[in-house]
Amino acid sequence: MVDLNSLLWTMLIGLVTGFLAGVIVKGRGFGVVGDIIVGIFGAITGAWLFTLLGLSAYGILGVTLMSLVGALVFLGLIGVVVRRA
Fold first, then answer.
1. Are 68 and 35 in contact (CB under 8 A)?
2. Confidence band (pLDDT; 50, 70, 90) for 1?
3. Rounded Cα–Cα distance for residues 53 and 72 (Å)
4. Measuring CA to CA, which residue among 12, 62, 68 is closest to residue 45?
5. Using CA atoms, how far apart are residues 31 and 59, in angstroms rounded to an integer?
6. Interatomic CA distance for residues 44 and 54, integer angstroms
7. For the whole model, what pTM was predicted?
8. Which of 10, 46, 47, 73 has a C-alpha 20 to 30 A away from that of 53?
9. Where are the domains of the chain?
10. Are 70 and 21 in contact (CB under 8 A)?
11. Considering the chain, what percentage of its residues have pLDDT values greater than 70?
12. What is the DSSP letter of 54?
């Protein structure tokens, strides 16, 4: 069963980190849905990277920073793929 509270927090953190990553990389956000998508993929990417490096993130601030790092890496990879296409 999906915990609605966790899902809402994931979407909220995804929105914030997606918006911040969009502002840092592109100079503006990607819209609400785009920011949430970038943030969620960023959270997945950040968790994977932190696990590879043996790092952990705790609390809202830690998870937000981890997601932001992941979102920036995700957007960087997307940028490389788009330039080559």
1. no
2. low
3. 17
4. 68
5. 26
6. 15
7. 0.83
8. 10
9. 9-84
10. no
11. 96
12. T
Q: Are 38 and 68 in contact (CB under 8 A)?
A: no
Q: Tokens at residue 62, please?
A: 């830690």
In the block, residue with structure tokens 């995700």: 74
Residue 22 CB burial class (10 angstroms; 0-12, 13-18, ≥19)? buried
- Encoded tokens for 10: 């994931």
The type of residue at 77 is: L
Instruction: Give residue-wise pLDDT tens across range 44-58.
Output: 888 889 989 999 888
